[in-house]
Amino acid sequence: MDIPILKIEDFLVVTIQSELSDDEISKLQEDILLRIKDVGATGLIIDITALDIVDSFMGRTLSNVAATAELLGAKTVVVGIRPAVAVTLVELGIRVKWNVNTALNLERGRKLLKQLIGAEQRGGVS
Amino acid sequence: MSALFEDHADQLKGQWITEMRESGLLEQMSDVETEARYTALYNTVVSTFRTGEFEDVEKYAKIITEEAVMHDMSVERIIGGILKLRDIYERFIFSKYRDDEEKLYQLLDSYEPIANNILTIVTMAFVEERERVIHEQQRAMMSLSTPVLQIREEILVLPLIGTVDSERAEQILEELLDRIVEVEASVVIIDLTGVPIIDSLVANHMIKTVHAAKMLGADTIITGISPANAQTLAGLGIDISMLITKNNLRAGLWHADKMLGFKVRIEDR
Predict the structure, then answer these.
(1) Given an 8 Å threshold on Cβ–Cβ distance, is B211 in contact with A112?
(2) What's the complex ipTM?
């Protein structure tokens, strides 16, 4: 099943609705990066509200997507991490190497993206 | 044997209550209450001797110990009553069959295990009930001592007081994360003024909390670390570069306001 990648203005929004197999995760990663390239997105929001469990593979992939998207000129924000998932990720020690931006929900994520992009543009001008 | 206790119920029960009253086991209890309570207990014990089933005793023990613990009665008072009845029965058996040795030993052989068992059940019930209450109080105290306060739209304050062990640390983490989601907090201030000792366990837990809160989109400010604790922290060699730390709660709040664009203004009075 293909996971829809929605476009709002210059941002892409991906909502992961169910647990994914490792293959599906890899496929999604590819799709997202192609889409960023295609539409020239400046921001990417990945919503994982529906996930009860995030394993180390998923954690690493999210981090990889963020790093690669950055190279393509898009900032990434992961939103909707549940408390239990946050605890698991911290215990897995992923966060230490994790330079992914996070926000509570979609709304906050969009706000954060705008801040990040705004800061970069101001930095570029001056 | 149960028939024996039943037939002489009034005499034995009367003797039992008198002896208990003399040894001060029945203080603060009215005569009506005493009568009702110990008649019930007496009947339970007799029926146990008749059937050899301990279910009723267990049930009864649960009820009286619950009450006893609630009213802060002493162990002596609970066990004392049962011990008295045990003695009365034994003396009664002795006086009845003094001349018939064979019958006497036969009776005692069946009497003693049951009597001991009843005593054990009541004692165990008492201990268990007490432990349950202690445990309950501990939990209540723990949640009482970790309030998570919302002081502005998006700011939570967690004043920690007392020592932090792993169990409490876990509980604090869970509570805090739930609250962040609930009030959609952006900044969390953890105030450590009331924490006497910060060791590597507390420090690591703090770092874990900061990371987890960050994943939910909340930044954490740590305040109120005492000079002595600051020295310990520096000496532990834990990487605390990612922590935002401020001198005291006031400075922490000021910083949080600045992060979120809040400005405090004094109106003309």
Answers:
(1) no
(2) 0.79
Q: How far is CA A93 from the centre of its chain?
A: 18
Q: What is the pLDDT of residue B18?
A: 85
Residues of B in contact with A87 (CB under 8 A): 173-174, 177, 212
Task: Look at residue A125 and tell me whether its pLDDT is greater than 50.
Answer: no
DSSP element (H, E) containing B211: helix B200-215
DSSP letter, residue B154: T
Question: How far apart are alpha carbons B218 and B209 in whole angstroms?
Answer: 11
- A-B CB pairs within 8 A amount to 52
Looking at CATH, the fold of the domain delimited by B149-260 is given as Transcription Regulator spoIIAA (3.30.750)
d(CA A89, CA A96): 10
Is the domain A5-125 a CATH 3.40.1190.20 member?
no
Residue A77 has pLDDT above 60, yes or no: yes
Nearest to B4 by CA among B84, B117, B80, B106: B106
